[in-house]
Amino acid sequence: MTQISRFIREVVPVAQGVTGDGGESAAPDGGGGFTDYALVSLHCLRIYLDTSYRMTIDLLKEVPQIIRSMNTLQRPVVSGKNPSEEEDFNRASAS
Fold it and tell me: CA-to-CA distance for 86 and 77, rounded, in angstroms?
């Protein structure tokens, strides 16, 4: 888990408690905007990253594409590794 993931796991419950939005989805189906706790969490993330709102949103939008790109790149074969070690590496990288 990354530092950002850990940060969000800590911030979201606090934001839900403060806003009273605990049982709602962050982005309800059918549109209409984000819940208050999602906006508070985004604001906290922006401060944590020390970036503008625009940069924070841009970073979050790029994450799925970055992950897909990384998953499609071929990993170099390291000489001296046996196949079971490479399988262990691949499993560890996927989680």
Answer: 8
Helix axes 53-72, 36-49, angle to 10 degrees: 80
Structure tokens at 28: 């309800």
Alpha helices for the chain (secondary structure H) = 3-19, 36-49, 53-72, 83-94
Task: Name the band, by pLDDT with cuts 50, 70 and 90, for residue 80.
Answer: low
Q: Which residue has the higher pLDDT, 12 or 90?
A: 12
Instruction: Count CA within 13 A, CB hemisphere, residue 95.
Output: 5
Closest C-alpha among 41, 52, 45 to residue 2: 45
pLDDT in tens, 8-47: 899 999 999 999 887 778 777 777 677 888 889 999 999 9
Q: Provide the residue ranges of all domains of the chain, joining segments of one domain with +.
A: 3-75
What is the DSSP-derived secondary structure letter of residue 51?
-
